[in-house]
Amino acid sequence: MSADQTKRIWQSEACPDWCVLPHGHLDAPVNRGCSSDPIAPRTMPGVPLTLHQADGNTDPTAQLMTVYAFLEQEPREVGPRVVLSTWNDSVHMTLEEAAALHQHLWEVLAAAQRVLEGDDR
Ligand SMILES: [Zn+2]
Known about the structure:
By secondary structure, the protein is an alpha+beta fold. The protein has one helix at residues 95-116; strands at residues 34-35, 47-49, 65-73, 81-85, 90-93. Strands 1, 2, 3, 4 and 5 form a 5-stranded antiparallel sheet that branches. The structure holds zinc ion. Residues 15, 19, 21, 23, 34 line the site of zinc ion (ZN).
């Protein structure tokens, strides 16, 4: 991934180095946000899940879901946000919120692994 260091007329600073969007000087305001690639992730390819299978759903079309994590930043924001996204939904978090979620997932995973290992104290 390489950032285009060119500053467009609507930017006060060049894109962050993680931005992969092809901006132009004439971008409409709605298209001026930066992103690390939510549509065809090359550097952050996402995690395929089989969420519905655990609920007893045997419909094969309902069993595939990929969760993507990427960064985005609007022109007047001072830093990136972390986005967790599926095909039709997304959650936007500050870096602090994403770090807290990361810690929480780590603790939940550790608790589950203790149960699987027979050490669920
Ligand atoms: Zn950008």
